[in-house]
Write a structure and sequence with these properties.
Layout: H1 2-6, H2 10-26, E1 30-32, H3 34-56, H4 60-79, E2 87-89, E3 94-97, H5 102-123, H6 131-156
Antiparallel strand pairs: 1-3, 2-3
Helix pairs in contact: 2-5, 3-5, 3-6, 4-6, 5-6
């Protein structure tokens, strides 16, 4: 384990602490605009796609597994009702988001999964060449980033006002 940590580039530790800090900020109640709400899911989407690409290049199975997992999680998330814990103030165009440990858990999940994949790839590169490994790793990246996007879409759902239809008898 010591050898693995000593061969880890220093920027990885900086990224880790940056993600911990970002997760800490997400654990506190805050107000954010629509743009800020979308930044984290888009960043996690880009990071997970980069992770797939840097591990497997343009491997069709990897890209398909990532896309299938991402779409499935986002679709399931969209079937759920809008977030009950978030609120939207139309006058300020701000969302009030309660603090949550979920973003930190998801970021740490992606970080440690990517770290483990990098370690496996460095120690036994052939292990990740099987179709099952490619699909499993890429699908896991898609799952994590899909959870971020699904969560943001559920929060965006609180912007929609229910339509009241008057019926005249």
């Amino acid at each position: 384990m010591t050898q693995i940590l000593t061969h880890t580039p220093l920027w990885v530790f900086g990224l880790f602490f940056g993600l911990v800090y970002l997760g800490y900020l997400q654990s506190r109640t805050r107000q954010v605009s629509r743009g800020r709400l979308i930044v984290l899911p888009v960043a996690m989407l880009a990071w997970s796609l980069y992770s797939v690409w840097s591990t497997f290049d343009a491997h069709l199975t990897a890209l398909a597994a990532w896309a299938c997992a991402w779409v499935a999680v986002v679709a399931i998330g969209m079937l759920r009702a809008p977030s009950r814990r978030a609120a939207y103030d139309a006058s300020t165009k701000q969302f009030t988001l309660p603090g949550s440990g979920v973003p930190l858990a998801l970021m740490m999940g992606i970080f440690f999964f990517k770290y483990a994949v990098a370690v496996v790839h460095a120690m036994t590169p052939g292990l990740l060449e099987t179709t099952t490994a490619v699909a499993g790793v890429a699908g896991t990246y898609g799952l994590f980033s899909g959870l971020f996007m699904a969560r943001a879409l559920r929060v965006l759902g609180v912007m929609k006002k229910p339509c009241l239809v008057e019926q005249h008898a």
